[in-house]
Design goal:
single chain; about 200 residues; alpha+beta; 4 strands
């Protein structure tokens, strides 16, 4: 029988792993991430909701030394080793023609027609929903006992040219190293605002 999880709060230990004690790592232990783990991360993140089930994110998992070196070449100096030494560094991109997949991804209605002829609107949608999927990726990796090191300090145009050359409708947006974090590579946690600082309840 399939378990139903509605209404069940996660344990404090799970919340620590996902949020409270989770950190963005700058260095990595020499421990590999397998293809099975990569596929498991994706099988979890794809279940997170996106508008009209757009699934607009496109991922390139750089695991070989060659792929990581090619990616590191487009990174700012401070980020190069964060890419090279990570077991895997994933490029989170988006597809500006995501609507072409909607007939099977969202078969309840003619959602493709909502986005035809509106490239700028599609870019807005693709960025928003692929960013959501990138956040799901980080949570999925942490849930599986891995650590993350998200970065935006790369030349995204060159990353797009190098890794999506055969898919001109794809754009790179940010990258995230994944592996087993070296605790000596992190700083003290930066401040987090109290609720009253940036929230209100109307």
């Amino acid at each position: 029988m399939t378990k139903q999880f509605h209404g069940h709060e996660l344990s404090h230990e799970a919340l620590e792993q996902l949020f409270l004690e989770a950190r963005s790592y700058n260095g990595w232990l020499d421990k590999r991430v397998s293809e099975d783990q990569i596929r498991h991360i994706y099988d979890l993140l794809k279940m997170g909701p996106t508008s009209a089930n757009q699934q607009s994110a496109r991922f390139v998992w750089c695991r070989s030394d060659e792929a990581k070196e090619k990616l590191a070449a487009h990174a700012m100096d401070a980020n190069k080793d964060k890419i090279r030494t990570a077991p895997v560094c994933v490029i989170i991109g988006y597809d500006i023609d995501f609507h072409e997949e909607l007939p099977w991804l969202f078969p309840h209605t003619d959602a493709k027609s909502w986005f035809e002829g509106d490239v700028e609107g599609r870019i807005t949608q693709a960025k928003r929903n692929s960013a959501l999927q990138g956040a799901y990726l980080k949570l999925a990796a942490r849930a599986l006992g891995l650590d993350c090191g998200p970065m935006s300090g790369v030349d995204l145009e060159k990353v797009t040219e190098d890794f999506f050359a055969d898919q001109p409708q794809y754009r790179a947006d940010w990258i995230c190293s994944i592996g087993y974090g070296d605790k000596d590579s992190i700083f003290d946690r930066s401040p987090r605002p109290e609720f009253e600082k940036f929230n209100r309840i109307d």
